[in-house]
Amino acid sequence: LFYRMNRVYKNYLLQKTLPRPVYFYTSRMAAMAGYSTSQEDIIYMVSIGFSGTLEEMLAFRFGLSSDEVLARNECETAEAYILRHEAAVLNKAALARERFKKYWNSLRITEEQRIVFFDLVSSGSCHMCAEKFLGKKVDGLYLVHIREDYEPKTKLHCEAYMEEDYLMQLKTYVSANYEPLEAVVMSSEPSLVGYSHEGHAMFAEEKRTEEDLEYLRKVQSGALRFFEEFCGLWGEADVEIRPQFAEAMY
Question: What is the pTM of this model?
Fold first, then answer.
C-alpha cells in the first residue's frame, strides 16, 4: 500500500523529486536464512522466539533438509544441539546469501546510490541482514522502531515516526496494536520464504481466502481514494503531521 501511495503522491509534487521507489521483496524468514557467518550468529538465531520444535527450527529457520537433521541426545541443551549442525547451517546460509545477491542485482541499484530501507514496524532484522549481505551502510525509516538489545541492531542508523523503547516496553497505542494496521497495508501476494537459484522471489502457500483478499482490495482502494483527496488538499505543504495526531486518529 505504501508503494502505491508513493506513486499517487508523486503526481502532486510540482517542484520536488522523490527518491526512486524500489519494491524490495524481503521477510524476516528470508533475510535470517543467510545471516549466519559464525557460531555467535547461530546462537543469536537460536535465542529468537520460535513456536515449533528444535528440529522444526533447523528446517524452517536454518533451511536444513530432513536427512541433515541429527537426532537429539538426552539432556542436550538447545544451543548445543543446534551447534552440532554448525557446518550444514553455515553452508545453507552461504547459499542463501548468493541467492539474495542475484535478486539484489536484478533491482539495478548502483554502488554509489544511497539506500533507505522502509518498513512498517520493525526491530531491524531485515535491515541488519541487508547491511551484512551488501557490505555497506543502509539507512532505515520505520513507522515504529522497536529496539532490541543486540549489538548489531543497536548500530543500525534508522529513524522512526514513532520511536519506541526496548522490546516488551512499548509505550504508544500504535506500536502495541499494529497487527490490524499490518493486515491492511500488506501485499495481496503471500509471504516471502526466500529466493530461487536464479534470484527470483519465492512465496509461501497462500493462507488467506478469496474473501479475505477481496476485503483487502476494498480497504486499500478506499485508503488510496482518501489519500489522493488528501494530497489534492495538502499539495506541497511542509507542515508537520505530528505522531501524537496519528496516535489519536488510530
Answer: 0.87
